[in-house]
Amino acid sequence: MRLVRIANFVTERSGGLRTALHRLGIGYRAAGHDTVLIVPGERSLDEQTDQGRVITLPGPRVPGMGGYRALVDRRRVTAVLRDLAPDRVEVSDRSTLRWVGSWARTAGVPSMMVSHESLSGLFRLFGPAAAGRWADRLNERTASAHDVVVCTTVWAEEEFTRIGATNVVRVPLGVDLDLFTPERYDVRLRRRWAADDDVLLLHCGRLSAEKRPRRSLDALAALRDAGVPAVLVVAGAGPLRSALQEEAADRCLPVRFLGHLRDRTELAALLATADVALAPGPVETFGLAALEALASGTPVVVSAESALPEVIGTAGIAVPGGGRGYAAAAASLLARPNRRTAARRQADRYPWSASVAGFLAAHQATPSLATSPGLDEPA
């Protein structure tokens, strides 16, 4: 089967979406399928990679998005799709690429849209209360434009359930359980960022408004106000980085901004070495960074407004509101004697093999959509 995937807002500094595309592509190839990924970039490229063929088409930068690009030349994208003659199309963008589902239907090609973001959640952050109706209308168009919509959590699925969409399946994402492991704990790395008695907090994620990174600064401040000698390491880039650095300096907070870590092994060591990870984003539909922290043996404090509570289970704490709640939750996790074992045990429920099997089932590449592993719960 030739499976053509297409995504916007993917760069070398991308986080969860880039990781998911890469791991799924590797899994599709291992299952014997011919995979092609189309993404935007600065210039045209056509490469053979471990996830299959990757075609980069020129796309302009999106203002205010910290370097993200988008495919806007529909004529060129359509020509590439037509030349590739896909058996299945997988779309990882519900807004700017929704038209691909309509193209696929006209061409007689089954299409699947993967819901990597919540329109309802984004509207709650940036729009008026009535904007929820607009999210429903856009979601209705998305669901009708594709044969299948894949959601990674019950939380993400809810906005399609609310509008009565009947072509939605649930497939959790996964985590690399060999790369992210408690065994990567690094004493020397810890001493680089924290004193022996310090609590090492980690914020791992894009520094943009929807991720609420200031909550991590507030959590650090609240812990220090309570007499806890905490420090914060921030791994991630984004449009808010300069403002956050200035704020941390103005508040005399011990924060180290590392930027985007391209070396996944370095990231795995940092995740395993931290005492507590913070994931304050309220519109996360899955939260790969938090799951990678759990796999590394590090408990996580997450936003109760997001999908993360169902992903972390009892291996972390979900908090409503702002930074003081995060500080209290971090202190509570630090008091748990088995926190690292519990974190890893929760992550073990999410192997990438189950995700790949579930996604292929959604593509009807396996015999039964209803009974394939990974559709509702991790295998």
From TrEMBL:
Residues 195-347 form the Glycosyl transferase family domain. The keyword Metal-binding does not apply. Residues 15-174 form the Glycosyltransferase subfamily 4-like N-terminal domain. The keyword Glycosyltransferase applies. Keywords: Glycosyltransferase, Transferase. GO terms for molecular function: glycosyltransferase activity. One of its GO terms (biological process) is carbohydrate derivative biosynthetic process. This is GDP-mannose-dependent alpha-(1-6)-phosphatidylinositol dimannoside mannosyltransferase. It comes from Mangrovihabitans endophyticus.
